[in-house]
Amino acid sequence: MSKAIILVMDGLGDLPDAKGYTPLSAALKPNMDRLADEGATGLFSSIGAGIVPGSDTSHLSIFGYEQEKYYPGRGPLEAIGARFPLKEGDIAFRANLATVENGKIWDRRAGRITTEDAKAFSKYIQKFKVGTGIDAIFQPTVEHRGILILRGKNLSPDITPTDPHSNIALPKSMPLDPKDKAAKRTADALNKFTKMAMHTLDKAKENKDRRRPVNAVIVRGAGTYSKVDSMFQRYGVRGACIAGGALYKGVASYVGMDIVDVKGATGTFETDLKAKGKAALQALWSHDFVFVHVKATDSFSHDGKFEEKKNFIAKVDKELMPTLLRGNCNIIITGDHSTPVKRRAHSGDPCPLLISGPDVRRDDVKKFDEFACGAGALGHVKGTELFNIMLNLIEKAKMCGT
Amino acid sequence: MSKAIILVMDGLGDLPDAKGYTPLSAALKPNMDRLADEGATGLFSSIGAGIVPGSDTSHLSIFGYEQEKYYPGRGPLEAIGARFPLKEGDIAFRANLATVENGKIWDRRAGRITTEDAKAFSKYIQKFKVGTGIDAIFQPTVEHRGILILRGKNLSPDITPTDPHSNIALPKSMPLDPKDKAAKRTADALNKFTKMAMHTLDKAKENKDRRRPVNAVIVRGAGTYSKVDSMFQRYGVRGACIAGGALYKGVASYVGMDIVDVKGATGTFETDLKAKGKAALQALWSHDFVFVHVKATDSFSHDGKFEEKKNFIAKVDKELMPTLLRGNCNIIITGDHSTPVKRRAHSGDPCPLLISGPDVRRDDVKKFDEFACGAGALGHVKGTELFNIMLNLIEKAKMCGT
């Protein structure tokens, strides 16, 4: 039985610099180039041509879930990534521990508080009753980050966030539509939580020595959790996820993939690529396909670092690819979106795509980069098409019709 | 006025063998290669990238009917192909005359009974009353094959089949949703038919000398028939269908195309290609386009026969193409789906596509095969796009907007 590895280099695609190079086209990557030569190539837009994908929506799409239909918002995906046991109807938010002074946000990250310190503060705000039959549950994750859950009947995610993404007056949450009673009830509950949390944190003894006291919780990315049919139910395949970042694990877990925790997989430049490769080979035994994610390509792009992005791609080629090649299976390599270093932000430019394996029709493209792959036989692959192409490749696609 | 011939070689697309060849790329086919050289080429997925098409859904798509919306299930299409006068709301099934022993299916084809013998048995089970206001009507087609119609009010196709596609205990039909009353009523009617047919066939004198008695009717592919707007109503064009297989005629008839019966068009390797070509030229006079279907490419693929598939393609090039070329019109050549000989089953790989005619923009591709066409100017054509491209080619496309 044929299997597949999907390697996604986050934010892989880029735009030409003054000399016409991208980090990928300039990188030394003999393994990827050989696969491009032997296989088929093209371009990939995880949502659609010209659309700028988020990290969550792009991965839903890569996993075969149409983001228009299945995207639950960032909150639920963060909560799932943090292994919080969500219930149907829960409203989940991405939360920040923050510093507020005189009603104004002073630091959205409370002085980039450590994970350990954050835990100490979190015990004061674990759970509040914030309305008739409504509980607010807070759970810290990494550093200043956390998740907030509102649990109760008749709640709605259609409210404004209390994290304005800048240092202005701490806003109250409001329903998007003033006539929407469930949203009003939810905004009221959230505002009550905000007030209770501030009141409680203010008295925390741990704040005594902090220059930037942890005295507020601000939230964004509201979304309702509802269970979706798993990948196995929808497509009859079992997938494993190997990633450092919690969000990627969250998306994979949401669609029912198995999460393989790898020691040393940090989602940074220092991530242990060899350990990830070994874990991928092992997961391949018990799964139809393995998704392997590396993050630093995107991080370097956000910091505008061309050389570092180029070097990390070379490192992936040298330290991860040889192990993946030992899987002796189909290999798909692409990015979830472009993050051009000159823009320091996601863009809607497609990513290069290569598919290699015994049942792949070889095309004339011999290099893996944004320019060469534009002439590939796969053309411009969009959205969930890539997942369908993978299912066909591993002979797991169900017939449509008879 | 410009016209077009669409030649569909069933299951045409293939995957490379050990030497990198497909039956098509290895076949001697000077006529098709010349058309590819003079015209434009690309790849075609009749439903979508990576999607594995059935024979019915793919042809709906080729005829410009979105299968997501218009696919009525296999039963109605088989019934239309058998020229059964379906009424709105009829539930139609594909049926098999079968042999059952001690409640277990022994032979799903009753010893591959001949068409003539099948007719003799069919007279016992032509029509039964199987519920209040519900008739069951059986009609034999070819060999063990037939169709069953349930006719009455408030019926539903949402039931389980009684043909399990393997030799296990004869299953009872059940509603897919136990609370669905119409489905319950339909499953009950079908189960009553099954019982009555078994009871009646059991006593048939024709069974006396048969090693595998015809003593059951098993069904699958339930679908409701409802009339759809004809191709002329939707697109203002008249199409003719030249095919051997009943299913292809059924799909064409369902969308209002004219069926041209050709003596010697058998849907097999021995099919009279010259007769089909002549019939196509004749039909071109009275139609805007003619669809010509050859089946053996697919049959050989299902049997894993590379050489035979290759030789049949060469035969089509030699015996059918010269006649079609005399039509002096646009020619489109492709497949409805790939059926790789190494898989012996349909796959989601695209088929090569060529379009040739005076108004076609010539590209650099000079050969008609899965590899060369990947570099063609048409790119990856999907679903009903091909039909729209054909309409534009023959100047019959309606403007969208003003």
The CATH topology of the largest domain in chain A corresponds to: Alkaline Phosphatase, subunit A
Share in β-strands of chain A: 15-25%
Q: How far apart are the first and last residues' alpha carbons of chain A, in Å?
A: 23 Å
Give the count of structural domains of chain A: 2
Count of alpha/pi helices of chain A: 13
Largest sheet of chain A: 8 strands, mixed
Commentary on this structure:
Chain A is α/β, with parallel strands linked by helices and 402 residues long. Chain A contains 13 helices and 15 strands. An eight-stranded mixed sheet of chain A has the order 10-9-11-1-12-13-2-14, with helices on both faces. The first copy, chain A, is globular and about 65 Å long. The relative contact order of chain A is 0.24. Strand 15 of chain A pairs parallel with strand 3 of chain B, so a sheet runs across the interface.
